[in-house]
């Protein structure tokens, strides 16, 4: 990977590169526009979490019922995660990451 060092002087705007944003659109955005975009971003994150949860379970070759029993989480919770109604947080999120990376060790530890 190539590293490039750049000096930026906040007092001199010509040293700052322009980002990939539409300044006019940002300047005209209302609070409702911002709230709508935040909601859309949250929904997208929930769908990503749902896909990740479903992928981990399917890679283990388990049904939702078997998966819930193996990791000690209620079946309804698994369904909510996979449907994007809820998002795993904290320990559940960490467990899913471990199950994704080292499934044999994680399942052995849970038995």
Give a structural overview.
- The protein has helices at residues 23-28, 31-60, 64-71, 75-83, 90-101, 103-110.
- It contains six helices and no strands.
- It is an all-alpha fold and 111 residues long.
- It has a domain at 48-111: lambda repressor-like DNA-binding domains (434 Repressor (Amino-terminal Domain)), CATH 1.10.260.40.
- The chain is elongated, with a radius of gyration of 21 Å.
Q: What percent strand?
A: under 5%
CATH fold type of the domain at 48-111: 434 Repressor (Amino-terminal Domain)
CATH architecture label of the domain at 48-111: Orthogonal Bundle
Rg result: 21 Å
Average pLDDT confidence is 88
What is the string of SSEs from the N terminus onward?
HHHHHH
What separation lies between the terminal Cα atoms?
43 Å
Number of strands: 0
- Look at the structure and name the CATH superfamily of the domain at 48-111: lambda repressor-like DNA-binding domains
Helix content: 55-70%
Q: Under the CATH scheme, which class of the domain at 48-111? A: Mainly Alpha
- Shape, principal axes of CA atoms: elongated
The biggest sheet amounts to:
none
Helix/strand class: mainly alpha
Number of H- or I-type helical stretches: 6
Topology, element by element:
Elements lengths: L22 H6 L2 H30 L3 H8 L3 H9 L6 H12 L1 H8 L1
Helix pairs in contact: 2-4, 2-5, 3-4, 5-6
Summarize this structure as a short list of keywords or feature phrases.
single chain; 111 residues; mainly alpha; 6 helices
């Amino acid at each position: 990977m190539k590293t490039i060092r750049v000096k930026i002087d906040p007092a001199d705007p010509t040293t700052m590169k322009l980002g990939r944003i539409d300044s006019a659109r940002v300047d005209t955005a209302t609070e409702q526009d911002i709230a709508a975009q935040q909601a859309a971003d949250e929904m997208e994150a929930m769908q990503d979490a749902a896909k990740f949860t479903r992928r981990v379970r399917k890679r283990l070759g388990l049904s939702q019922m078997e998966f819930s029993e193996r990791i000690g989480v209620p079946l309804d919770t698994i369904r909510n995660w996979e449907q994007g109604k809820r998002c795993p947080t904290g320990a559940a999120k960490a467990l899913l990451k471990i199950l994704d990376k080292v499934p044999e060790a994680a399942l052995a530890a849970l038995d």
